[in-house]
Structure formats: C-alpha cells, structure tokens
Amino acid sequence: MSTVSTRDERTAAALPPRPPVGGRTSALRRSAPKIWLYVSLVVISLVIILPLIWIFLTSFKTDFDAINSPQNPIPNPFTLNAYQTLLSSGQQPIFRWFLNSVAAAALQTVIILVTASAGAYALARLEFRGKRIVFGAIIATLLVPPVIFLIPNYLIVQNLGWLDTIWAITIPGAASAFGIFFLRQFFISLPMEIEEAARMDGAGDFRIFWQIILPLSKPALATLAVLSFLNNWNDFLWPVYVLLSPENLTLQPGLSILQGAYSTHFGIVMAGAVIAAVPVLIIFTLAQRQIVDSVASSGLKG
Amino acid sequence: MVSITPTALGARDRVSRAPRGARRTGTAYLFLAPFLVLFCVFVLAPCVYGLWISLHNWNPLLPNQPFIGLKNYIDLFTPGTLTSGNFWESMLATGIFTVASVPFLIVIPIGLAQLLNRRIAGGTVFRAVFFAPYVLGVAVIGVIWKYLLDPQVGVVNHVLGMLGLPANTPWTVDVPWAWVSLVGVTVWWTMGFNTVILLAGLKGINAELYDAASVDGAGAARKFFSVTLPGLRPVMTFVTTLTILASANMFGQSYIITGGHPGNQTRTAIMYISDEGLSQNQMGAASAMSYILFAILAVISIINFRLQRDTTK
C-alpha cells in the first residue's frame, strides 16, 4: 500500500494544477441577457424541426391538398391514402425496400463489427512485422475520395456475379477503414495490465480478445454498430448504380424512383420519405449521445 | 493465482509500452485476415485497377478494351473533345458549390457552437436537434426539399408570398437560385455535424485564457479573435478539410433536387463521372476523370494544411 501512496503523490506533484471547475463564467458572460440566447436557440431549432414536421403532416394529405394548400400544415381531409397506395404498389414495393434496407444495413454492420474488431485487436494490442505498413495503408485510404472506387468496384462486383444482390451493397462497403481506426483507438486506451494478468493465467490471444477486450469495449462496439447501420441505411450513389430490379432496391434509391414515378403526387413521395426517415430518427433519439459524442471527439483526434 | 494489485499495476506501467520480445506476426495476421481480404479486394485493388482502366478505351459493350495510354487524360485537357467540355463544366459546378458552401458551413457552425458553449439548460437537447438532420440520408433530404422548394406548389414560395415577398422564385429550376437552394439545403442538412466538432474544440480551450483576457480588459470581439480562433485552429484544420472534401464530392442533392439542370449547370463532377462511367459505359474516360478530381483534391488538401499550419506559427 505504501508504494501506491507515494506513487500517487508523485503523479499529483508532476501534474499541473487543474483549472478550477466553472472558471469559465467570467463577469461578462454572467450578465449577458440569457433570454436572447434561448430565443436564438429555439428559432434555429424551429428552422430545423419545422420542415420535418411539415413533411410528416403532408404525407397524410390528399394530392389535391398537398398541391393547393402547401402553406396549411394540417391535412384537410386527413387520409392514409398515400401510405395505402405505396404499400399496395407492385412497381414500387416500398415494404420490400424497407426489408432490403434493414437486411443490408444489419448484415453490413455485423461484417464490420467482426472484421474491424479482430483487425483492430491486432493493430492495437499485438506487435508484428509489417504493422506500420498495414496501419499506414488503411489510414491513407481514408483520404481517397469514394469516386475512385466507383468504376473498378462496379466491375469487380459484376465479375463476382453480385450486381443486383444484397452482396453488392454490403460486402465492398464493409472494408471500413473508419471502423478499424475507431476501434483501434478504443482498444489502445484499455490498460495493458488486464491482458497481461490473463496471459500469466495461460490465456491465448483469442481468449483475451473474446473474453477481455470485447466485453470491455461494448460501448465502442455499440457506437460503431449504430454508425455503420446509419451509414449503410443512408447510402445512395452506390445502390443507385448496382441495384437494378425494382424488388431489390433499398429505400434511398427507391425514394429517387418514387420521385420520378409520382412527380406530382407529393403526398406519396413524402410518405416514402417518412418511411425512410422514421427508423433513423428513432435510432438517433435512442443513441443520440453516443452518435454525437463520437463525432465530437473525431476532431480532437484528427 | 494472479491477482491484480495496485503495486503490480505500478510496476508494469513502464514496461507495457515496450515491444515484448515475442512478436506474434502469425497470430496478428490471423486476426487481420478477414479485414485485409476485404480491404485488398475492395479498396487497394480498385485504386490500382482504376488507374489501369483509365489507360484503356474501356467500354463493356465493345468486344475488347484497347490500351490507349494517356489518351483519356490528354482528351480531358484538349478543348473540343467529346469529354473535355462536359467534364470541366461539371468541375466548374463542383467548384461553385464548394466555394459557395464551405464558408457558410464553417461560419454558421462556429456561431452555433458559441451559442451552445454558454452555460445553458438543455444544451445537450439543442446539440442533438442541430445534429438531427445529418442522420437522414441525402435521398430523404433531397425529396423533401424538392417539394418544399418547388416553384409552383412549394411551401417556401407560398410563405414568402404571404409575407409580401416575391412568390415565384425558381428555386429548383434556374440559376443562381438553384445554387442558393443546393447550398442552403446542404447547410441545413450538415451544419450540426461541424457544430458538434467545433463545440468540442471550444470546450478544449483553457478557460483561464478567457479570464486572463478579461483582466486585460478585452471585449467579446477581442476575446473571440485572440483566444477563441487561435484555440480552435487544430480543430478548424480538420473541419475545413473535411468540409471541402464533402462539398467537392456532392452528388445526391443535385441528382434529386435539380437533376443537374438548368442545362447541365448544376451537374457536379461526381454526377457526371458516375453517369459517364456507369450509364454511358465510358469507363476509361470516367476513371481518368476520377483521378484528375482526386489529384486536384489532394493538392487543395495539402495547401489547406500548409496554410493553417503556417498561420499557427
């Protein structure tokens, strides 16, 4: 115990004194009229929320109502026609698109979690030949604009016979440099001691990875899962080109098809937008803190 | 029996960073294998394959793909060829959009981050609301704003009319209004993303610097320019680079809201390259274009890094 206390004293002495909590409230800030601060925050929030509410309400309007009184938010009459038309459409099977989107996003998320966590374990916790080259190559490709991959990957996917299948929209995108980088940062932050103790007990790398590192990384894995799911759910350019038949589309390219097919039936297009947006907004509401925090910290690392 | 005692922790602290004698190269590559297979096939190989394609007259409808050296690149720099006019028009559209959107995507988020950095109740809620549009896909954003901005039946023009302002602005069909719409929608969609990163940067600035500035009699503006901005510099470099790259890769907003019209004036480089390569089957030419875009973006990123680093010194 004595070792511990001396060590604590040494670290305490070596560290600069912490800035006092709440030191930020300078005289000027305290006296600033807070009411205007709240007014501006509420106004900006309305600018963001109102268009979304408007769209939601428009999806319950008749075509006539949507075209003739767009300035009136309340549907008159209130109707579920748009949703009924969409759900019964043979040419634009939106329920099928919804399932395709769920399946693709879930499958890609699982692939990313498995491949990125295993790879990140090696990069964060093991010493091996070629480590810096592998890591450098992964980071370097983060800087390559996605358009570079568009045509060659189209040809590769075509040669694999994956065009117009779920594999085209899940496997290539699962080579996620972001995922492996994100998990590596987290794995590095875990103290080496927890692993060394297990190693003395005779645990091998696989057991350490599976029974120690992964359970400790649940928050990071959950965040990566949410980000990967949203990313795949919202993917647009790639599925527009690699998915061909109407029944194989996902919601995002589907929306652009809907827009072409129902260009003046705004209620129907807005109902499609609502169907594509609601799952994402639910996930965001539930995992808001993790999503926003992971973005917030990205700038401090970079 | 090994128990983790604080003493053991202290003793290990120093050796843990040093590479232990036993390198486990085999094990490491076993762990990396699933990722590396995907990475090699769908990231590394396409980088090289794309270059190879760009050196050919690569059209999948032709019986063979003849090697033509740098002709695709030379054509793009030769006025009057099939591709050069359209390509540079699309690069101009991308340039206009980037130049017009990036300042707003930096300045507005700095303002929002300043507001959120005050001691307020519900700060996390406002932060989440500002961020929310960003989690929606570009297709959703595109179709809703195409309706809201529709010149005839859109809410925006109706509301402007009710306020006694011109109610016939061609938001989605004519320039410069189409640019105003594309920039405005993009700002509405992504400003929360930059705000959240800049807010984290603001929170990292040492509060004592502000107090010291107060003691020196600095006003709010003075504090902003001599404490806030210098303190934000590293984060700003990151945010501007990310924003320039994102704007330069704009595709969905134009694809859905304006369809690239009027003429091809709002057709961005990504829109033209994907159409030329995957709809018109000119894969060689399109690959060459993507590498030119890549080269230009790389140069801009390097200049941006240099500039921001030099001003720090």
Describe it.
The complex is a heterodimer of chains A (302) and B (313). Chain A is mainly α and 302 residues long. Chain A has a domain at 91-261: MetI-like fold (Orthogonal Bundle), CATH 1.10.3720.10. Helices cover 72% and strands 0% of the residues of chain A. Chain A has 15 helices and no strands. Chain A has helices at residues 2-14, 27-31, 34-58, 63-68, 81-88, 94-125, 131-141, 147-159, 177-189, 192-200, 205-216, 218-233, 237-242, 251-261, 266-301. The longest helix of chain A has 36 residues, at 266-301. With 313 residues, chain B is an all-alpha fold. Chain B has a single domain, classed as MetI-like fold. Chain B has 13 helices and no strands. Residues 1-21 of chain B have low confidence and may be disordered. The chains are: A mainly alpha (302), B mainly alpha (313). The interface between A and B is large, with 120 and 113 residues.
Alpha-carbon distance between the termini of chain A?
39 Å
Report on the biggest sheet of chain A: none
Largest sheet of chain B: none
Number of helices of chain B: 13
**What is the count of DSSP helices of chain A, taking H or I runs of 4+ residues?**
15
Q: In terms of per-residue confidence, which ranges of chain A show pLDDT below 50 for 5 or more consecutive residues?
A: 1-28
Quick summary of this structure?
The complex is a heterodimer of chains A (302) and B (313). In chain A, 72% of the residues lie in helices and 0% in strands.
Task: Write the SSE topology.
The complex is a heterodimer of chains A (302) and B (313).
Chain A lengths: L1 H13 L12 H5 L2 H25 L4 H6 L12 H8 L5 H32 L5 H11 L5 H13 L17 H13 L2 H9 L4 H12 L1 H16 L3 H6 L8 H11 L4 H36 L1
Chain B lengths: L5 H10 L9 H30 L16 H6 L7 H33 L6 H9 L6 H11 L6 H8 L14 H27 L3 H9 L4 H29 L3 H7 L10 H11 L3 H30 L1
